[in-house]
Amino acid sequence: MRALVLNGKGFENLAVRLVPTPRPGPRQLLGRVDAAGICTSLIKLVEQGSDHALLSGWDVSLHPLILGDEGAITVCAAGAELAGRYKVGERYVPQPAVDHAPINHRDRYRNVGQGVAKVAVGYTLPGNLAEYILIPEEVLEAGCLLPLPKPDLPCAHAAMAEPLSCAISAQEHHLHLSQEAPGCERRAFKGLKTGGITVIVGAGAMGRMHVDLALSYRPRAIVVADLLEARLEKVRTLFAERAAGLQIQLTTLDPSRTDLKEAVAQLSDFRGADDVIVAVGSRAAIQGAFDLVARGAVLNLFGGLKKGEDLVPMNTTVIHYSEINVTGSSGGSPWDIARALELMASRQLDASSHITRVGDLEHAIEFLQMIKRQELDGKAIVYPHRRTGEILSVNAWRAEDELHYLAGA
Known about the structure:
Layout: E1 2-6, E2 14-18, E3 29-37, H1 41-48, E4 65-66, E5 70-78, E6 91-94, E7 97-98, E8 119-120, E9 132-135, H2 137-141, E10 145-147, H3 155-159, H4 161-172, E11 175-178, E12 187-190, E13 197-201, H5 205-215, E14 221-225, H6 229-245, E15 249-253, H7 260-267, E16 273-278, H8 283-289, E17 293-301, H9 316-321, E18 325-327, H10 334-345, E19 355-359, H11 364-372, E20 379-382, E21 392-393, H12 399-406
Parallel strand pairs: 13-14, 13-16, 14-15, 16-17, 17-18, 19-20
Antiparallel strand pairs: 1-2, 1-4, 3-5, 3-9, 3-20, 5-6, 6-10, 7-8, 11-12, 19-21
Helix pairs in contact: 4-5, 4-10, 5-6
C-alpha cells in the first residue's frame, strides 16, 4: 500500500512510499482510510523526528512512522477475537490521542515503555495518511475508535471530527457560576453562556471552527476579530446567514482599525464579554483579552505560544475582582470526537465550510509545506485511494462534491 512515511528528521526524510499492507492480529482491526486531514502538528513531528516528546524514545530511523492523526476509516478486516464486535463495512473515526500505555513494540520505547502513559495515532501507532490503517489494541482498549452516527456522513466531514473536537474540548472548559438570588447556592454551567456575548480573537482555520461551534450555544452576539480582512470576509460568508437565522448578532472587525474593547463595551452596555477565546498565538492578543471580560466571564487561551515566548503578564486585578476563570485546553478526547460527529450529523456544525484544499496522498507533503509557509488558510483533505494530478482549491466541500470527486467527475 501507499503511505506517508517518516524515517528521519526533516522533510528530506518524508515521502510517500510503498509499504506492506498490515495484517491485523487477533485483537486488532484493519481499516480502509476513506479520507484523511492534514494537521499542522505534523510539521513539528517531521522537524523534530525522534526528539518529539510523544515518541518517548522511539528511533524513527530504525522504525519509520506512518503519519496522519486525522482520518475516517471503514473496517475491512477484524482479528479473530473481535469478529463479534466489529463488522466489515462499519465506519469509524480514530481518536489520535490514546491515553493508554504501549502494548505493541514496547522495546522501541525508552525504558521498554515503562512510564509511558500515552501513545498517539500517526506517531508511534500507525497513521491515517495511508491507504489502510492498522487499529491496534491500544486504540480499542482506550475507547478511541468512535462510530459514525449516520452511515451517509461524508468521508471528508468525518475526517474533520478531530480538529473540530479540539474546539469542542476548549469550549467545554468554559465554566460559568450562577446564583438565582444572593441567598441561593451557586450552580455551575459548562460551555459558552447562552444569551451572552462571545468574543473570538483570531479568524484563522481554528478560529472559524470556534465560530461554527459557538453558534450552537446561542449567545446573543459573537464578535470575531482579526487583522486580515480576507479572513473576516470568510467568516461573514460562512456564518452570517446562519447567525441571522438564529437571531445571533455577528460582528467582525479589524482591531487595528476598530477599537475591540469599545465595540464589546457598546454591545454589552459596558459590561464586557461573557466568553473570550484567544484563537491565535499572540502575546499582545492574550494581554488585551483581559480588557474585554465581564464579571464572572471565562477567558480561554486556546492559541499556543512558542516555547521561550510563553510567559505573559496577566492582569490579576481582573481575575481577582471580576472573578473570571482563565482556562485552556490542548486537543480533544473520545467524547469530543463523538460530539463533533453528532453535531455534524444534526447539521449544527458545518464541516464543509472549513475545507479549502482537496487532493490525494501524494499531495500530503505539499500541503504540509503550504501550511509551514502560511499559504493554506483552512483544512486540506486527502483521499488515499483516489489518484489525481491536481490539487483542488475550494470554498466548501459538500457531500455532493465528494460523491462527484470519488466518481472521477
